[in-house]
Amino acid sequence: MNARTTLPALVLLSVLVGAVALAGGLAAGTATAQTANDTANATADITFEDQVGVEEVTVDEVTLSEGGFLAVYNASNGLVGHTEYLEAGTHENLTVEVSPALSRSQVVVAKAHLNEGDQTFNASVDDSYTDENGQDVADTAYVADEEFTRTTATDTATTTATDAAESTTVADTESSTETSGPGFSAVAALVALVGAALLARR
């Protein structure tokens, strides 16, 4: 092959390689734009009710338009648990193990996260779902320590019953002292005798 035929062939090859690279770049750009658009339109909703328990919590319902994760944070905003990857749609009664277990009764936050990686939760990569105001989609619940709640309720009931019994006893005693008994009868008789004597002298 002489120089006259080699040069046009090289030029043609360069043009073909450039066209393939450009097409690949455009396709990648389109996929990235599509992903960003999906993320921007992603919506979520969470229902998280007050409950008792320190080692796990139950989220009543979560809806994720693009799939993802539900993460649980304690009152100090520390991550204490999360679900496995959740497919797009509505999921009910999700139990999330809490580690470390909650040390006291407190407000707990359940937050929806997108899946930005390989369906393995990573809080630094998987961004939160956000609402129309740009706020994280989350719900809170007061999670009470079961033992503490029961002890407090029992002590309160016992104290209330004791106070009520003591109040009734004191009231009955005061009533009896004021209206009846030997002392009251003797005083009444003495007053009557003095009155009769005064009338006789007149």
UniProtKB/TrEMBL annotation:
It holds the Pfam family PGF-CTERM. Keywords: Membrane, Signal, Transmembrane, Transmembrane helix. Residues 182-202 form the PGF-CTERM archaeal protein-sorting signal domain. InterPro entries: PGF_CTERM, Slg1/2_DUF7282. Residues 44-143 form the DUF7282 domain. One of its GO terms (cellular component) is S-layer. Residues 153-182 are annotated as: Disordered. The chain crosses the membrane at residues 183-200. NCBIfam families: PGF_CTERM. This is PGF-CTERM sorting domain-containing protein. It comes from Halobaculum marinum.
